[in-house]
Model the fold of this input.
Amino acid sequence: MEDFYRELIIERYKTPHYQGVLDPNDISYEDDNPACGDHIQIDIRLDENGVVTEALFSGEGCAISQASADLLVESIIGKNTEEIKALGKEDVLDNLGIELGPVRLKCALLPLKVLKAGIYGLGDQKAED
Amino acid sequence: MDPTASAGFNVQQIREDFPLLSREVRPGVPLAYLDSAATSQKPTVVIDAMDRYYREMNANIHRGIHKLAEEATLAYENARERIADFIHAPSPEELIFTRNTTESINLVANSWGRAFLKAGDMILLSEMEHHSNLVPWQILATHLSLRLEFIPVTPQGLLDQDAFQDFLEQEPKLLALTHMSNVLGTINPLEDMLAKAKSAGAVTLVDGAQSVPHFPVDISTLQADFYAFSAHKMVGPTGIGILYGRRELLEEMPPFLGGGEMIKKVELRSFKSNDLPYKFEAGTPAIAEAIGFGAAVDYLSRISMAEVEKQERILTGYALERLSGIPNLHVLGPGIEEKGGVVSFYLDGIHAHDVAQILDSEGIAVRAGHHCAQPLHTKFNLPATSRASLYFYNTPEEIDRLVEGIYKAKSIFD
Done:
């Protein structure tokens, strides 16, 4: 449990480095986790080569979801959309450095779901994990 | 001194009736189960009653003339009678076995609603309803172009009685209300509200999921046309619930689900409905669960619902007193006078899920989220809350552990 709320997670939850909104943006997507009310929006600006130049997240939720969003957004700056499409669950868990049960996994993965839906331009459709 | 000590009630003895309460969550970490509003734990007598049915008399009911079928039918119908007595219903035929409160409400929406409501009719609900007493009416309203209105919840967590009066003047066809809020703990003044609604010509439905388990409910004095509740929140099994309906209404209503048992006579192109309550019990029901439900009301009756209510009031008062001493913690809902054993709270700067996770590491089970009452959380501008819900088998020591756990969460986040 002490691992669960390791310093990095608490620090990123309390003082996120990449929180805010980008307007205008090239990609903006948001979604909720209906089971717990977590809400995440991710805004992205791309250069002409499809590389992320700026990205920010906004929303509310538990420490896991918010820290996961902050770390995920940090990790995509400088990546192109193809590299982002290749991101998976393991990358999120590596960012957080913890093991999670099925319920809390949804909190951790919500930012990834939002990011991928935005990148794929899925609109209201359900994003792939 | 143990603040719950009272003559004739020994909580330690009661706890021995519930095998699960003595388990450890993890090695060396005993369980403090504070999530009974989600589902209660089950005493050995309930588990045994269901076990005995399967070991000794398993057979389908109401058909078959063999001995087993006869015993099973008797046990099933006997359970219905005991549950009817438990809520002082005029007759057992007015009790329909359903899966749970949700199915009971859906039955009324689909059967009574579709038969007797028409475009433009108003259904009056409240802002504190559980999704199970909200979404069925939304679905029906879309189909039939009905108008849904909501009695507002005041900042104190009570229903706004002036607004209720104003709505009554607009002649709602149905008032569907929770007896006790599963988030705020508010016990609504139903005797008065249902009487007013009846005088205004409305049919009344009560979501009793949180009331029947926790205090005496007397159907004969409440002017409820429909009253719904579930076994699993009152020491009974999952998968079985009750819809009480006033006989005149049930008789006028078309069947809900079609199939075996609900018919008197079937031809290729038509059928004739069975008598009450079988008209609404299509297919083989949850027989073991109904029998378990009967054992559950027997168990509660032996303790007495007055005693259950009394113990919970003592515990709730103690929980409110302890929690109110924690800095930056906010309890939702009214004070003890209007509140049942549901204590929802939030902490500044710590999300409810994180609180629940840290409490879990200490063996304390609480619920975190919106508790199937999202509009209420939206109204109070809360993404999620933590909820400790109490039952007569809880102890002040468990509340002390909750408080310690909350301080631990604060130490991690502050």
Summary: The two ends of chain B are 33 Å apart (CA to CA). Chain B has a mean pLDDT of 95. Chain B touches chain A at residues 349-354, 357-358, 361, 368-370, 374, 377, 383-384, 412-413 (CB under 8 Å). The longest helix of chain B spans residues 67-86.
